[in-house]
Amino acid sequence: MGSSGGYDDLPFVAEFYDFVVPYRERGDVNFFVEAARSSGGPVLEIGCGTGRILIPTARAGIEILGLDASAAMLAVCREKLGHEPREVQVRASLTEGDMRKFDLGREFRLVTIPFRPFQHLMTVEDQLACLASVHRHLGPGGKLILDLFNPAFPHLADEKFFEELNREPPFTMPDGRKVLRRHHVLARDFFHQTQDVELIYRVTYPDGREERLVQRFTMRYLFRFEAEHLLARSGFEVENVYADFDQSPYGSKHPGDLVFVARKR
User: Phi and psi for 102 in degrees, rounded to 5?
Assistant: First the structure.
C-alpha cells in the first residue's frame, strides 16, 4: 500500500486479518490465480498483505513477488509461507515498499492490485506515480489488474453508514479469543471523494475479559471513467471492466465491483 493503513501502528489488524469472515470468503482468489496462470508469470502483487492471493498463486506454479508497505502484514505472510512446501516458498518473494515509488530492477508479465489498496492514495499525483511505477515494471504487452470499490450514489449518501453497523459474523482466534467486528463512516467528503472509516473490534478473552480495539483510516473512491482516464494518462489501454470476479461485464450487477484489466501500450 502507499500507506501501511495503520497496520504497523495497530498490529492486531494484521493478526486478525486472515480470520475476518468477509476477507476469508472474498471471491476473488480464483480470478487472480487464473489471471496469473494465463500470464505465465512472473507476477507482481501490490498490497499483498498476508498472502491471501499471493500464496495460492505460488501454489499454482507461478512466480510471484509481493510488495506491501506494512511490515506487520508481511511478517504474517512470511510466517504462513514458512509452512508451505519448499517448491511453493521458492516461487514467492516479498518486499516492503511504497506503491507510489518502487524500483525492483525487473519486469513482470502481470501486475495486480487486489482488494482496493489503490484507494489509500489520496491525490491524483500519488495515483499517477503508482501507475507510472507499475508501467515501468511491465514487460511489452504486460497487463495490470486494478480492483476498486464501485461508488454507487445511494450507498455513498446513505445516512445509516454513520451508525455502528455489524453485518459480519464473529470469528474465533486460535487462542480462543472471540472477535466481533463492526464498522461505520465517521465523515465523508463528497467534493474530494473520501470517506473516514472506523472498524471496531470487540474482543472477548476466554477468561471473560473484554477489549475494544479501533482502526481508523481514510479511503478515496474513484468513478469508472475517472479511473479509465488515469490509466490512459499512464500508458494503459483498458481491455475489460468487470462488475464481479466471475467476469460479469460492468453494469450487469448493482452495485458490483469495479475491476479493470488494462494492457501496457
Answer: -145, 150
Q: Is 214 helix (H, G, I), strand (E, B) or coil?
A: strand
DSSP state of 208: S
Q: Measured between alpha carbons, how far is 48 from 46 in angstroms, rounded to an integer?
A: 5
pLDDT tens-digit readout, 220-229: 999 999 999 9
Q: Does domain 153-220 have CATH number 2.30.29?
A: no
Residue ranges covered by each domain of the chain: 11-150+221-264, 153-220
Bridge partners of 184? 198
Q: Report CA 12 to chain centroid distance, whole Å.
A: 18
Q: Which amino acid is present at 126?
A: D
- Angle separating helix axes 124-137 and 224-233, nearest 10 degrees: 50
Show the beta-strand stretches assigned E in the chain. Answer: 43-46, 64-68, 92-96, 108-113, 138-149, 171-172, 178-189, 194-204, 210-220, 236-242, 257-264
For 113, the grid coordinates are: 492490485
Spatial distance between the Cα atoms of 210 and 226, rounded to a whole number of angstroms: 44
pTM for this entry: 0.96
The parts of the chain modelled with pLDDT lower than 70 are 1-7
Number of H helices, E strands in the chain: 9, 11
Q: CA 227, CA 250: separation in Å to the nearest integer?
A: 13
The pair phi, psi for residue 171, each rounded to 5°, is -135, 160
Fold exhibited by the domain 11-150+221-264: Rossmann fold (3.40.50)
User: 63 Cβ partners below 8 Å, 6+ apart?
Assistant: 41, 42, 43, 91, 92
